[in-house]
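Re-running the complex after MR caught last week's input typo. The corrected sequence lines follow. Everything else is unchanged.
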Amino acid sequence: MEFDISEEQELLQGMVRQLVENECPLARVREIFEGDSGHDPELWKSLIEVGLAGTAIPEEFGGAGLELLDLALVSETLGNGALPGPFFGHSLAGLAVLLGGSDEQKKTWLPRLAMGDAIGSVAFAEEGSSWQPEEWTLQANGTLSGAKKHVPYGSIADLIVVGTADGGLALVERSGGGVETEPVDGADRTRRLDDLIFDGAHCEILPDGQRASGRVRDAGLILLAADAYGGAARCLEMAVDYANTRQQFGVTIGHFQGIKHQLANMAIRVDPVRFLCWYAAHAFDKIPDESERTAALTKAHATSVFMQTARDTVEAHGGIGFTWECDVQILFKRAMFDRAFLGAPAVHRERAAVLAGW
Amino acid sequence: MEFDISEEQELLQGMVRQLVENECPLARVREIFEGDSGHDPELWKSLIEVGLAGTAIPEEFGGAGLELLDLALVSETLGNGALPGPFFGHSLAGLAVLLGGSDEQKKTWLPRLAMGDAIGSVAFAEEGSSWQPEEWTLQANGTLSGAKKHVPYGSIADLIVVGTADGGLALVERSGGGVETEPVDGADRTRRLDDLIFDGAHCEILPDGQRASGRVRDAGLILLAADAYGGAARCLEMAVDYANTRQQFGVTIGHFQGIKHQLANMAIRVDPVRFLCWYAAHAFDKIPDESERTAALTKAHATSVFMQTARDTVEAHGGIGFTWECDVQILFKRAMFDRAFLGAPAVHRERAAVLAGW
Amino acid sequence: MDLSYGEEYEEFRREVQAFLAESWPPRGDEAQLPQNEQIDRFRERGVEAGYLSRSIPRKYGGSEQEADSSKAAVIGEEFRRAGAPMDLLGGGVSLLVPTLLERGEEWQKEKFIKPTIRGHIRWCQGYSEPGSGSDLASLQTKGELVGDEWLINGQKIWTTGAQFADYCFCLVRTEPEQPKHAGISYLLIDMHQPGVEVRPLKQMTGNSGFNEVFFTDARTPRDWIVGKRGEGWLVSRTTLKHERSGLINVGQATSQLPALVDLARRSTRNGRPAIEDPEIRQKLAEVEGFMLANEYSLRYRATKDIKGQDPGRIQLMAKLIRSDIGQEVAKLGMELIGDDGLLAGGAASEMGRPDGPQDNGAWVTTYMGSLAGAIAAGSSNIQRNIIGERGLGLPRDAAAQRGK
Amino acid sequence: MDLSYGEEYEEFRREVQAFLAESWPPRGDEAQLPQNEQIDRFRERGVEAGYLSRSIPRKYGGSEQEADSSKAAVIGEEFRRAGAPMDLLGGGVSLLVPTLLERGEEWQKEKFIKPTIRGHIRWCQGYSEPGSGSDLASLQTKGELVGDEWLINGQKIWTTGAQFADYCFCLVRTEPEQPKHAGISYLLIDMHQPGVEVRPLKQMTGNSGFNEVFFTDARTPRDWIVGKRGEGWLVSRTTLKHERSGLINVGQATSQLPALVDLARRSTRNGRPAIEDPEIRQKLAEVEGFMLANEYSLRYRATKDIKGQDPGRIQLMAKLIRSDIGQEVAKLGMELIGDDGLLAGGAASEMGRPDGPQDNGAWVTTYMGSLAGAIAAGSSNIQRNIIGERGLGLPRDAAAQRGK
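Corrected-run output:
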């Protein structure tokens, strides 16, 4: 009975934390946040160099051969640093090919994704907040024609895993033509989105796509939850630091019970989320019966907590917290992404209710 | 444009407040609370003497000829004192006869109710939290047979206004036989309840009962809301007094921002309820188009606030607040009554949604 | 309890309507004038008729009317209906002018009041500093009397409208040897001078409403001080006897509800129209309960104002109640817009008051903007202290006591 | 991450099962004995087998096993499944015994530990006083050494089980000239004497769980003191090295959920089964999220205990999290029971943990009882201070500092 991450996993997280601190402290995050593309090829390269692009891709395909728990631990740490870039969509695309692809497709794409030679992304959402496989309507008949919304880094992704009617998955190479991208003016400028319009784009069906699509969605929910925990923990840390720095009435404001109790209330919501995320990822890896429902509850809970914590953190900072200059806004908008992407908390709570037979 | 109570109304409230303080301070409330009947005939007599039993009964029938706003102001003050006894049900019974009765019925009953020669009550609830006129199923065909739940002081009421199928109202004299009462082990021992079983009890239909029943219900909602405001204000006062008395760490606990901010949060919920209750009562008297919906929203809001305030007041008192000895429990249980009687907040919020055409 | 205005005020309403029918919008030649000149002339006439600047003496450009909130309310309703220019808002009119009226020198009143209420000169308020938010009395901007001029050095923040302001009414520490409150003076400073630099502060919504103002050897004449040296704190807190003409704004507290209901009508939730979802219906009705309770509290308060009576502690609560409700509205809006919650936001007011049908992006801005309500003009924690101490009679904080 | 126990512990589980199959319930003649004697004999055997009183040395009646939370968890699971008596709970076993083990005199250990862990003598805890709740160190009960005896005068409150207790472990002010903490001693007092009066405190639920205890010239021998004079505060805070055998109680944090879901299944809301109401479904799923997050926090903490590692600040949060969730559960229950919310309540546990299907009246008791969780054993405000100060590294309150 061991509910804890392993020493290797601690080392992995420590390595990623170090990378984030060295390569992309918040000052650098802000530059990318304010930049045009929201993507820093040098930063992406440094993630690739330590193998993060292929974290959950098997070793035989050039990946690190780790599990979703490891990927979630990476996400937690990247969320804590509000790291910009295509990591999230790229990771899901790799999982989609791994879980749904033919041997041929795996051999073609997994090494390229693991090595970072190709950037992957996923195109799930359709008009009307339709994120779930059973809601997809885009028909795939050798080619794709129609629209997908909110595709992470859709304009730079080389390989796009598209959700298709009847909950299937199809691969589209953006370079193959027939794909137009229109940037979304998203709040979270650390993870850019594009709407995609397919016009006769060549696509390849993933043969096990229908079986894989729910799993890929569940993985996405868990990675967003882990990101949300990391972000919420960072918010809490910022709020505590501010309370220990800011002086009013001759003392730091952390002396005031009003602030202190607000921070304590934030902490008791934030800290336990970490362990829920671990469990959800572990269930994905090892307890298939519980995986889908736990992923839904975990995404709903973790991202709600992050969002409220981000709000509380703005408030704890007073006026400065409401400014563009203050880094809290970057986390706040990341919380908006984690909350809404793949469906808002209410969607997944209702799914969890259905899955429990309520 | 005057949104305020009149000087006469202030005098009325002041008079009632004085009566409560003199005749039934909390120590006396507790005796009645802990007693068998929950009714103090002497106290009731002193209410009758100043005319409260007929507050909203026209002068021609021996009442004070006031409006629902006045009755609500009385209820607010009685709620503030957690006054035990049949006032609430009695007042509703009078309104029912007034609004639904024939001239004959009014002449027979209103003077007796106004003078306190008869105690009135209302029997609305049926099994399954069915309080609303359109939910009533009891058939009245000259006699009544069947059950009603949660009748205030059903065992001592002389006249019971019974809600009947199709939203009608019927009068039953308890002395006429065919009425069995079974005491309910209710939380609020300041307003006792009995379940009633009618077995061929003689009844008289109120000819305008179907038109009146909704109005009587609305009046009941407003009186409960006013009682709730009064009770919530008393809770707040108790919590503030305790914070100004109780010492910890060498100072009164009101010095601690933790407590102070909790009390401020209570106050901003409680204080505005007073004016909402006034408006709801005024709308009942003067703005028929808004009356039903405002009554529903006001009951839901005021009683929710009272309940949460009572909880907060227990917590603000620490251990002592959780004891039987501490008077907070009396208010707490009064909040439970106000909240659930005539239907819980969710019922009336849903009704308000329907009435708004949502 | 009488929610009508009564015949006296309905008669007055007809007068106002007649005036407006004649005066706004301008006709004939006047309609050809530039807009600001149209407004200027209209205001002049409104003052003459006794409808504008009612609390300001005639000699300073006002119409010097007896305080009457009902009349003020009628004027407000009719002017709004006609789309006519009203009394200006903002710190110059609502804070500086009453302060000058009560504490200013005669020459100051003559020089500043009329152009301020006519909108010919604009003011910004120089109170907050980076290190002095809740603890305003700890402000550090220095004023030194050098010859016949004050030399001002320091930084102000959260200065609304500083980029457009002609002058600043400013709290400045002029008596460094005095304890906190006692060392502050209330100075008037010309913003058009080399020693004043205004930098806009971009907000998280992407908009800029506030500024930082840097004073570097900025100058102002010796007698541009209101009250005596070291009395600035008291001067800035001068009880405002100014008529609260905007107060009875019937329906103000519930103004966000229609947009929220409209949003629920056009949104989908778990496959059904959101307006049919029991959770949404409950939340709408719950928030409406809070709004209505606030609405009638404000009407009570307005009535007490009319009567010249003290409304009691309810008047301390308005800001906290409004910002709490605003946050609930904003969260419910976010709940309803689905994946438009990913968007950067649109053109809603930042104080979180979308009063009409809007696109979903505006709800994102409202979602962020609703936080400003809990921060600006006295944080919610400071409000709670005020309510606890002045409203409920609790003792002052141990820590805050030490600061004084 | 490995949520199985592993083969080693499954082997151990089979041993425990074999032991239980033989020993509980008692058979033959033993089955005829009075129940307390059956339990007594079973405990004796459980200690011999190394399953009970694992952290207590053999010479004091324990089985002196190496700390192993996994074994403890397996024992707990199997004993519960068999309905067999476990280690006793309560202050005597969980607080006094570890304190004696660490700080007691040899004769104290010999005299008190074994009968305590066997349940032959019962203890109550005499810490809280009417004037000393959160500020425990301000306690006033006096102990004066007169000859060879302590003479004790004062009042304790919230004393659970005082009416059944044989002895009280008690904080008493023996050095009145010393400042707050330094003047307190830790005394053991016989409850069966004329100077001790126990009065039950009736709770708002109508039940009585707590007592007041009045000491009027109560006596205890000079050497019935643990630690030195004036060291009582430290003694009472002795780090508990006691094995936390109850800690890995898998599913503990979610134990209220099934009853709540069951209640929603059999309740009606606005004319439909409550379980089909989207608001109820959302609330159930939301509260389940909080419960699951807590559940896995507790498992993490248990794992860290096994490894002898510090779980960090999460361990400070358990009580506040539990009482917050308990209040949400209780409110949701109240929301579901309709007009049974008028009732006086039924026989639920007062700490708000209805673990199985219950009647609606029990939910009323839960509704009140859930408040006790926010009050008893350190109020929620004190918990927030602890989390803020020890968990987040915020400074101590100005006011609290003054009190020390």
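None of the earlier attempt is carried over here. The domain at 211-355 of chain B is CATH 1.20.140.10 (Butyryl-CoA Dehydrogenase, subunit A; domain 3). The radius of gyration of chain B is 20 Å.
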